[in-house]
Amino acid sequence: MVSKRLKIKAKSEGTLVLDAQGLSLHADGDEGMRARIEVAQQRGRRVALPALTPLEVRRTGEAAKRLQSLLSRFDVKPVNDAVTDAAAKLLDASGLDGRECLVDALVVATAALCSPPVLLVTSDKSHIPTLCKAAEELPGSPVVKIINV
Question: Does the pTM exceed 0.85?
Answer without folding.
Answer: yes
